[in-house]
Amino acid sequence: MSKAAALANSPDWQSIFNNLANTAKDERLVRFYQAGAVAADTPLSDVELIAMDIETTGLDPDRNAIVSIGLAPFSLDRIRCAQTSYHVVKPIAELTSKSVTLHRITHSEISEAPGLDELLGTLLESLAGKVVVVHYRNIERGFLSEAVRYFIGEQLHFPVIDTMELEARLYRGANQPGWFARLRGIKPTSIRLADSRLRYGLPHYQAHHALVDALATAELLQAQVATHYHPAIAIRDLWN
Amino acid sequence: MDIEIIEIRDHLSRFPPFEGLPEDVLSEVARQIEISYFKAGTDILLFDQDIRFLHYLRSGAVDVFRRNGELYNRLTEGDIFGHFGLLRNHKVRFPARAIEDSLVYFIPSSLFDRLCEEHETFADFVEAEGQSRLKTAVDSQSKAGELMQIKVRKLISRLPIMVPAHTSVKEAACVMTAENVSSLVIVDSMAAVDGTGTLPAAGPGAGIMVGIVTDRDFRTRVVAEGLAPDTPISQVMSPNPITVQAEDSVFDTMLCMLRNNIHHLPVIQRKRPIGLINLTDIIRFESQSSLYLVSNIFNKQDVAGLQSLLPDIRATFVRMANDEATAHMIGSTMAGIGRGFSQRLLELAEAELGPPPVPYCYLALGSMARDEQLVVTDQDNALILDDSFDPELHDAYFLKLATFVSDGLAACGYTYCKGGIMATNPKWRQPLKVWKQYFTQWIDRPNPETLLNSSIFFDLDSVYGEADLAETLKDLLASKASTSEPFLAALARNALNRTPPLGFFRTFVMEQDGEHKNIINLKGRGTAPLTDLIRVHSLACGSKAQNSFERLDAVATTRLMPPEAITRLRYALEFLSMVRIRHQAREIEQGREPNNYIQPETIPAADRHNLKEAFQVLSNAQKFLRYRYPSLQSMRTL
Fold this sequence. Notes:
The complex is a heterodimer. Chain A is an alpha/beta fold. Helix content of chain A is about 45%, strand content about 10%.
């Protein structure tokens, strides 16, 4: 296996963070990287996790904007509602009425909300020293990195555990129905958040509220670990 | 920014003890909640472990155990656990294990303590458990307890007007007119009569009551008979009248009038009459009294007239259910009304057919005999005839009589008994000696068919005619059944045939019979098996009581069952009956035909919990019965 491939499989986040802490210019970013990443062999049960969900006006980080962010710090044992946070963001791009209905956020709520540039500091502080948990990392990591590039003009990198990817390991690749089965109408198992939760007996939550979705993601990871992994599993086996 | 997770708050708001808490309190609880996921088979609480959180089951299923490992309760969505530990030294009392993948919400004990302090309903709920929670539910739903609690002596406004037995009818009439009363108590003593003919009621030397006369007696027994004005009142009085004790409740008094169709009732304290209660006193107290209905029954001159009262019966039932009367009150009142119909029909039959050729007793069986009748009921009745009965000579008369009553009852909404347990069936229209043989045989050689008869015929009560005939059978039954262990064992086995709908896994096992899908048969799987098992215990202790609550009272005087078990049964029966009654009342109000089937989803969450608990009480009581009569195995061959 090439060095690049090994890195892609399990990046060495501790050294990546060390390097970035030295090269970053913005103070907020420097502090974020200086908080460091946990060692790759840390047992999951010892890791401070934070579930994050970002609701956006669309799917493309280049063209769409963040409207709300939900954060739920947790551990394998407990999700503490008292520590959760929820931010409505004034987007740069115009809010379409479609996304308004989707996220149940009104225009007046948005107009009073801070811009993302004002929130970035708080946000990075919340994430510092923790491992971020998301469902479908391309959205959260993509939008957040794009926002940092836009407002600060620098790169944002951080490790995430993607609960969707954990589901994909079970139900995609070798485990998904082959072309022949699909031809006969056998659908691949859905790995969307709500459908995945259902498989673990987790209750149905109203989707598309950033905080509820963050909570839903945290619960899903607890369920996945309880079902498929040992709590002492090394973080390197789960993160990206 | 003030965050609150609506998903959590809304869920809490649907389940007790959070249900009914103010919005801001719920939001505060939701904000402080912690969450954890437990895989099926994982221990959540271990015995004696420290506990700092109230546990709330958001989804999944959890078993709670006693210390000895016995299953204590099976919890589902919206149930709480761990509160015992929080209330007692913060040590786990009842260990808990997830039996399905479960999501548990944790509420910090500081918040739990505050909720207990500031919200009475919350404290009541978490502090009560088992019978007492059911008790809370039962107690809070019967506001009409007033009628049960208030002593009849409170309704007495004046001492009864009394005259000695030798007083002439003319004098007696003058006293009644002077005192403006419609009834008069007759006493045997002459000593203390003062100038006006009245007696100091309870004082020394006051007379012992020997009879009563009413306005009506002057019409029917004096004037219509053409008696001389100097006839002693003792000749026209009703001797040894039915009385109530001063300490009896207003409701008991009402029932007594209802059962006996009398409108004047002397109230007795320490053997002396202290007042006279009449129908209007009660109606004044309880303005919509069902006694109105009963007195109406006796004014009707034919079956069509009786039939016209059918809507009134249902209205009475609905009103009592809405007034939150107890199941006992409603059951007795409906049975009293049913008796009224039977009695009036028998009077009408005798008027048409002439007087009976031999004495007889018309029996009520089943729910009417137990005073546990509701609106959905069929008729179960029988005739005990005097032993001088000669079928050749007399049976034609009694067949006509039975048919007249049975058809009349059917016309009034008491449908024919599908099993043919009616006096129209020659088998159930027999002289006392044959009945004695029946009962003896059923007890000595029980078989599946006669056991079925036992559970119907062993709830019996006289409705009309010679009550002594019925009493003889009750005596025979009480003395014989209690000493026949094999019979009791067989009857016990029979009482275990119908189990409560508590599935082994998770939640209710629903009925699957045709049109009633996903529903619970409250009678067949609830009140009926409860009555069955109470009957076994009651017969075992030789009681002659018919009503299930009174049977439990009788069992309580023995050592047959622990007192807590009896209390629990009482609450379970009351609760199941009330759910059934309210369900039927709702059906009637909505213009539907009332039945015994409920869909658990349609009842409020708090009731659902209590319902499950009541079924659990029944289930435990059945276990106890199985344990009490272990010879069941050997009875298989019966």
